[in-house]
Amino acid sequence: MLEVQALESFRTGVDYQFFHGLGILAVAALGERYEPARQLRLAGWFFLAGTVLFSGSIYATSLGAPGWLGSAAPVGGLCFMAGWLVCAAGVWRAAPIMLR
Q: Residue 9 CB: number of other CB atoms within 10 A?
């Protein structure tokens, strides 16, 4: 039972890493083309920090690390949320430029 739960946790970490990796690629592509690149770069850094903290702590605990290491996951989740908010703000600012 424990191994199945660890595998599901690991899979969750992989899913979040995958989708936020795509987010990093998206903000990098948008940041090269449009003006509010600073906000998009910041969003990319938030996604990277969230991936390390959230997915990394899930990987570590599912592979046998001490349980206290899993307490970094909520901080990583906050980084993900901050990244999406900053990304949305950057795209909102770039919308008039994109529509030209």
A: 17
